[in-house]
Amino acid sequence: MPALAVVALAGAAGSTLAGVRLSRLAIDPDAQFTNLTGGRLARRRAARPRRAAALLHAAVVTAGLTAAVLPLASPGYRPAVAATGLAGTTVLLGAGLFSLPRRPRPPTPVRLRRLLDGAVAGLCLVFVAWLLLPYAGVPAAGRLAAAVGIGLLAGDVLTVLTGAHRHTGAARCRVGAALTMIALVWLAALPAGPTAGLAALLAVPALVVGVLLIADGMRHVAQAAGDPPRAATLIWPRTLVPAAGVVVATVHQLQAGLLLDRVAVSLALAAVVPLVVRELLSGDAERHSPPEPAAPTPEPAAPPQAMPPAAAQETSPSDQAGAVVRPVPAGRAALLWALAARPTPVTGALLVVDLHLTELPGVAARDDVTAEAVRRTRALVAEGDEVFDLAGSGLAVITTAGPVLAYALGARLLTVLDRPYEVSGAVLRSRASVGLAELNPGPPEDVLRQADLARRRAAQLGRDRVEWYDAYLEEQLVRRLELERELPGAVARGELDLVYQPVLGLADRWPVGTEALLRWRSPVLGTVFPAELLPVAEDLDIVGELGTWVLDRACRQLADWSTGGRRLWMAVNASVRELTSPDFVPRTVAVLDAYGIGTDQLVVEVSEPRVGAELPTVVARLAGLRSMGIRTALDDFRAEHASLAQLRRLPIDLLKVGPELTVARDAGHRPLLDVVVTVADRIGLEVVAEELESAHQVEGALRAGCRYGQGYELARPATAERVEAYFEEFPTTSR
Predict the structure, then answer these.
(1) What's the rounded Cα separation, in Å, for the pair 394 and 407?
(2) What CATH architecture is 326-482?
(3) Tens digit of pLDDT for each residue in 631-652?
(4) pLDDT tens digits, residue range 221-236?
(5) 571 HSE (CA, 13 A, CB side)
(6) Using N-to-C axis directions, what is the helix angle for 584-595 and 615-627, rounded to 10°?
């Protein structure tokens, strides 16, 4: 096979694989980085990763087309084709990389040192590329341009692979883009001759690996949550790789019997200039750095060096009349700078506070609330603590206190920040959430990310609370994000399933009904149970969609089991939010009519602990169901005074109690189940003992007077086929 054909096939295959992945990220409406909430600026920022995926997809396709067209072009036009593809790919890659999420810019001295380090490595690699590129039939200007392009791109790859953010998706995209451009520059620089095909094979690894790295990096960008992780910068590869390349290229040139030409000597001398400048800047910084004091002296405020020169600052009103107004650092960059400047050993904690206003004020009013919150916080914290305004997203506090005192500070902040705010003649209220993370010697981005995760957890648990970070918390939040991303559309994808647990008569162990239990068979998360599934569905407001599916599937299965004279009931759980929907009763009756099921064969269960907040509406819906002949049940009943008192108000037919009531709490006393059964008999309710997992519990429930039972000891939940086979062991039931 001709060498150029190998280049075309490899480039087209790699670009196709990468393009398919990037196109999914660009057009998938369920992509994790999609966010259509918030204002125009928030939506524009949320759209940047999607735009980056689209641009990188176009760049990958352009690179693949360039490699595929090369065998079709005549030898004289192949460099022009490669140069055209290189130009188009460069523009698209640049636009795509520019659209990726950006990190905070480091201070100017740090950026200058990084630039000089990159210049030294880049010039050395340009020198290597100049000596190794083929020169027969290639103009000197074209050869130099190709050497500069390959060398600088290789230097960029080296810098990214050894930098602190080398494990992020954006870093992989940059490395992939550089490798792709190196391959195209190599193809454009090849001379038009018989040896060009064999030399073109060297571009295949860089091209294929480059486009696949772009797709993989974009996938990591879509899956990333919070700030990107940092790692220690690798210094030795930045020094060793360029130096080794210079030695290898020089030895190769001398073995070929050639001396270094003027361009090679000029490149070698040019690499000395940034090296000298960097050393001069480092030495000047050391001479002008202030000496460390012999003994630390307390200062009333943070030293100026603890704040980045470019960080935006705001001033806060003084807590006392006539006191000096202190600057308030603003922005996450200032916070990261202060965390990095903490003296070692690092002690204390970081508190990140989210101010959730119950109303939706304008931007000016929100800024006034934040300024007032910062003023209250500064009046509360200790003298050595630092307060930061996070520019619209809340505030942060760096404290030197230990874990116990830091948690107490967070609790006091909740009390202070929850007081009303008088802004522009209006009274606004907020519900704060505080996330805590201990300071550690690691990168400051990790500490901020941990505190942010704890703050999100506090917000998810209802706000007005303080949460500490731990590794288990991070696993929970990542799991929650995956659930929120995968659950929408689960019904349409056919991932939901029902299992059924038979309900038996305790006296004769005869099946009288079943309960439908929801399972989500996710190909990504595995089997998800209702305890984890339903809270996420409530937050996403798709409980009604799930409940409609469960009712339809359960009634269809009940209709299948009812053939042949078998008479069973089907119990279906309904959430309070679903039950309070105005169309719940007529929708339920319509499903029963569609499958020809008797209304007395359906039992709608509602959980007793969730009824209290919506008791009047729940009573009305249950009464509506009973008026249509549908039976109702109260699940998870607690034998408490308030629960017993509201039994008369609830229009129910069945009462489901747990196994904990079958055991007496004190010696010489009857089990609470006896009391519950007595009360239920007086008001005409049947009692179902559920979660019976031992013969002792079954015997206790039967002795207390329960008519029905449900649990692993009697029958385990199973698929419809297994339950139907279980029913076949009994003659036709009509109960």
Answers:
(1) 18
(2) 2-Layer Sandwich (3.30)
(3) 999 988 876 655 666 777 889 9
(4) 776 644 455 565 666 6
(5) 25
(6) 30
